[in-house]
Specification:
Elements (H helix, E strand, L loop, with lengths): L1 H18 L31 E6 L13 E6 L3 E5 L2 E3 L10 E5 L11 E5 L8 E6 L4 E3 L3 E3 L12 E3 L14 E2 L6 E4 L14 E7 L5 E4 L1 E11 L4 E11 L12 E5 L9 E6 L3 E4 L3 E3 L12 E4 L9 H6 L6 E7 L5 H11 L2 H6 L2 E7 L6 E4 L2 E3 L1 H11 L7 E5 L5 E5 L5 H9 L2 H13 L4
Parallel strand pairs: 11-16, 22-23
Antiparallel strand pairs: 1-2, 2-4, 3-5, 6-7, 7-9, 8-10, 12-14, 13-15, 15-16, 17-18, 18-20, 19-21, 22-26, 23-24, 24-25, 26-27
């Protein structure tokens, strides 16, 4: 029995010695050693920087990195595994693979045009990036983004856009007064220069209204400038141009006459000329000017019936009363019964309106001296004055004669027979002064 026990103890010791090889997890122990000792490590300890490893060994959890140990490598949040995710302790005392935990990195952010960004830790995990824009530009998109563990940024790409309109200031144009004789004023100003708050470049400056240096009419004129920048933003400024015309109280056309004014007829510097119809003479000023104080020069103009003085002593004095005022048609006949004379007067009576329009006064010299008489419409001339007039104009008292004198007393035409009113009018209408008179009469609405 004792021999059998001895054999068993010896066999057990041999088995134990055989199991205690390197890397087995067993070890020769002495009395002072703990029998739970896990054994000599076979592979180097597993160390995971920025992570950890979970291992399983053939001998249970108390045996670390012994032969056959299998470990799974894990990285902490914000890091990603590069290499083997699972390693095995091999007989060569080496782990079956290599591994490392590298910090998560997001794609590089694109630099926004006309702006930039600033990050707390580059493109690495949990880095916060703040976007900013250059002066004059506005940020569109996320103002800040963060690099996430998914290797993606928390927001999209941000842009810097030129959304601010340019700046333009219109000129300050003072009120302008029209020059003498004009109803317009020349207004000039400097073209405003716009300013862009972003890149400083303007593409167009557009004026709505008349350009500087233009003659503006009386009243208010609205003007505006519009500018555009390269982004299409626009700015508009407006200004008013006021033109004032100094005016006198408008004059009235005199009764039995007409008035012709230049300019606007009542503006500062305007001149108004006055004329009277046939049979009337001008009283007051023949021309009046609107002055700076907005008062008319001269005296009020009117047309009064022409007062012919037949009591003068000579024919020359009689004719002087018509100088530059009237044309004269002088008819001389030996007797009132003369058939030429009767025909002539009948024809003229039917054309009295045309004679008045042409400022024609008819003087009749009838009979022979000493019984001859003269007549201007309803006024009779003394026989002596009638004789002087015949002698001055060299008219025979024994024959029929017709003489046409213009307003300067010039002999225009003579006839020894009756003449039609149409022929007389044709001669008068060919005189340059009459052309001007006809135009004035037409403007005044005078006619037959």
């Amino acid at each position: 029995m004792d021999n059998w026990l001895s054999v068993c103890v010896l066999v057990g010791l041999q088995v134990a010695c055989c199991l205690a090889y390197d890397g087995s997890g067993y070890w020769h122990y002495t009395d002072d050693e703990d029998v739970r000792y896990t054994g000599v490590p076979w592979c180097a300890p597993v160390k995971v920087k920025h992570g950890h490893a979970s291992c399983q060994t053939p001998r249970g959890e108390h045996y670390k990195n012994v032969l056959g140990t299998r470990c799974k490598v894990h990285c902490k949040r914000g890091y990603e595994l590069h290499g083997s995710s699972e390693i095995l302790c091999m007989a060569s005392k080496q782990w079956s693979g290599k591994y490392t935990c590298r910090e998560v990195r997001c794609p590089a952010l694109a630099m926004p045009s006309n702006g930039g960004f600033k990050c707390s830790d580059g493109s690495y995990y949990n880095s916060h990036c703040q976007f900013f824009c250059s002066p004059g530009y506005t940020l569109r998109g996320d103002r800040s983004v963060t690099c996430q563990s998914s290797k993606a940024w928390s927001g999209g790409q941000s842009l810097c856009l030129d959304l601010d309109p340019p700046v333009i200031k219109c000129p300050n144009v003072k009120e302008k007064t029209a020059e003498p004789g004009k109803v317009t004023a020349k207004v000039t100003w400097d073209t405003p220069e716009g300013k862009d708050t972003a890149d400083g470049i303007l593409t167009d400056v557009i004026l709505k209204g008349k350009p500087p240096g233009t003659h503006f009419t009386e009243g208010n004129h609205k003007q505006s400038y519009t500018v555009f920048d390269r982004a299409g933003n626009k700015a508009t400024c407006k200004f008013n141009i006021r033109v004032k015309v100094r005016r006198c109280v408008p004059l009235s056309v005199p009764e039995n006459g007409w008035m012709k004014c230049d300019g606007a007829g009542d503006n500062y510097g305007a001149t108004c000329d006055f004329r009277c119809l046939g049979g009337y003479e001008l009283r007051g000023s023949a021309a009046r000017v609107c002055q700076f104080n907005m008062e008319w020069s001269g005296l009020e103009s009117s047309c009064a019936s022409m007062n012919i003085n037949v009591g003068v002593r000579s024919a020359a004095q009689l004719l002087d009363q018509f100088y530059e005022k009237r044309r004269l048609l002088i008819i001389s006949t030996p007797t009132a019964a003369n058939h030429y004379y009767r025909f002539q007067m009948t024809n003229l009576q039917q054309a009295q309106c045309g004679l008045d329009l042409r400022h024609v006064t008819v003087i009749e010299l009838v009979g022979r001296f000493p019984s001859q008489i003269g007549r201007i419409r309803y006024q009779l001339l003394p026989p002596g004055l009638a004789l002087q007039l015949r002698m001055l104009l060299q008219l025979s008292q024994n024959s029929f004669n017709v003489v046409l004198l213009d307003k300067q007393g010039v002999d225009k035409q003579r006839y020894t027979y009756p003449v039609t009113a149409a022929e007389i009018f044709s001669i008068i209408d060919s005189i340059p002064l009459r052309t001007e008179e006809a135009l004035l009469q037409k403007e005044a609405g005078h006619g037959c």
